[in-house]
Amino acid sequence: MTGAGTVFVETAARLHFGVLDLRGALGRWFGGIGAASPEPTLLVSASRAGMAEPELGGPSELIGELPKIPRRAATITLFLIAGLTICLAAEPFAESLLATGRAYGVEEFILVQWIAPLASESPEFIVAILFALRGNPGASIGTLISSKVNQWTLLIGMLPLAYSASNGHVAPMVLDRRQVQEVLLTAAQSFFGVAVIANLRFSLLEALVVATLFASQLFFTSPSVRYVYAIVYIALTVLLLATNRENRRGFFDIRRLRPGHAALSAEGGMPAPGADGARRS
């Protein structure tokens, strides 16, 4: 259906059930099942909105001042150079990281879980910090949220394909117990993160809680502690939704994201990601 300058699409909701072998002894594939639900429905809308020119600086400003064809050529060239650099450096970096851990007696899993992401995701952190320093917290949090969505969709979806390609035939990825713990912990973190920003606000206290929980994990190397942290994240999520009406309403009511509703904000002001462009729900 359509309105004045707005297109609406209403679909049935979906329930997703994940299959996660916590003991790692069943040899099952990690996956999920989706089921359609007539209630509640999901309403998606797209409309034209005001567009603000982005603030460019440094190399991006120089490229932005070029004519259209040279600008596009420069962008494509930089993209290809970045991809080639990653292909050439990824394997030596991973092998060197593991060799360093073996030389200094550091557990390899800790290096892969914590040190490697700091190196690979540092560009996103830098961009998010720069947006925040320039008084654009909406773009800052939007950068990190889009990265999280990309990790849970494209990245995880590509892993079985890459694993099958390396084996030369289609083969399931069998997760060991430690990997299952990390997947469960990451899912619990995401669950808590969605609940925190469900009221379209991100306070300093909430940021300190998220940062403290994340940083404190580095001091506990026991695999069983991962279950404890996952339970803590889930318990905090349930507590937050039970005690905060705004978070609970935002968590369960997708209709609040329709055009015209309040934008994501923080104590100090945080507009919703994409609030200046076309709004989607």
Helices, strands, pairings?
Elements: E1 6-19, E2 31-47, H1 59-64, H2 68-104, H3 108-120, H4 122-133, H5 137-167, H6 177-196, H7 204-216, H8 224-243, H9 245-252
Antiparallel strand pairs: 1-2
Helix pairs in contact: 2-3, 4-5, 6-8, 8-9
List its salient traits.
281 residues, mainly alpha, 9 helices, 2 strands, disordered C terminus
Summarize the structure.
The chain is mostly helical and 281 residues long.
Structure description:
This protein has helices at residues 59-64, 68-104, 108-120, 122-133, 137-167, 177-196, 204-216, 224-243, 245-252, and strands spanning 6-19, 31-47. The protein has 281 residues and is mainly alpha-helical. A two-stranded antiparallel ribbon has the order 1-2. Helix 2 packs antiparallel against helix 3 (108-120).
Q: Distance between the terminal alpha carbons, to the nearest Å?
A: 15 Å
The main pleated sheet reads as: 2 strands, antiparallel
Q: What structural class should be given to the helix and strand makeup?
A: mainly alpha
Order of helices and strands: EEHHHHHHHHH
| Total DSSP E strands | 2
Give the fraction of residues assigned to helices: 55-70%
Taking pLDDT < 50 over at least 5 consecutive residues as the criterion, the unreliable ranges are 258-263, 265-281
Count of discrete alpha- or pi-helical segments spanning 4 or more residues = 9
Question: Which oligomerization state do the chains in this entry correspond to?
Answer: single chain
Q: Rg, please?
A: 22 Å
